[in-house]
Model the fold of this input.
Amino acid sequence: VVITALATKGLAVGKDVSVPASAPDMATYVALATDGGTDGVVVGLFGQDATNFIIQLRQTAPDVQIAATTTDFAAVVEALGDGADGIVVTQFFESVEGDSPAAKQFMDDLVAIGVDEPGGFRANSYASVMVFAQIVSEMADISAAALWDLLPTLENIDVGMMPPVQFKTGGAGGIPRLFNVCVQYAEMQDGKSTVFSDGFLNPFTGEAC
Done:
């Protein structure tokens, strides 16, 4: 995914460094990633490993641009504090800091059940339920088999949280079961993400969604 997305900007991955899970010392892996000069590092590690790697990377090469994709990113940002500032991330949903009515409704619904933190894949779960509800609301026979048969015919399902989704055409980025890939690019600052891309983009082509 990273290789294909970078290629749309005329960029390439210089090296791919494997990091063992729960590695006790990230210095060796950061040195491998930055050896010979590195413009940027894409960190794709699990939560605590991502935190440890980024801390070491900030100490070793403070001017290197960082992008991150990791589990429980909210916890990583909290652990890093100011060290998270400037990290580039992708967002699959409208920002809760923006003006999207759907994003505002999402936050209102969270608050209504006593939750004030939108991270932890809550937007994913919320949007998935909204998509499911919209689909089954128009089904005469609501069953797993009927839904399975119906899905490959569906497109333009719009719940406001992201561009309309579809299940007719898979294979995005060469992955058979990947149907919807639109993202926004954002930068972390003071614990929040600020979108800097011009709307949602297809990371594999660079084209607007």
Q: What stands out?
A: The chain has a mean pLDDT of 90. Residues 15 and 33 are 7 Å apart (CA to CA). The chain has seven helices and five strands. The beta strands are 40-43, 65-68, 88-91, 184-189, 192-195.
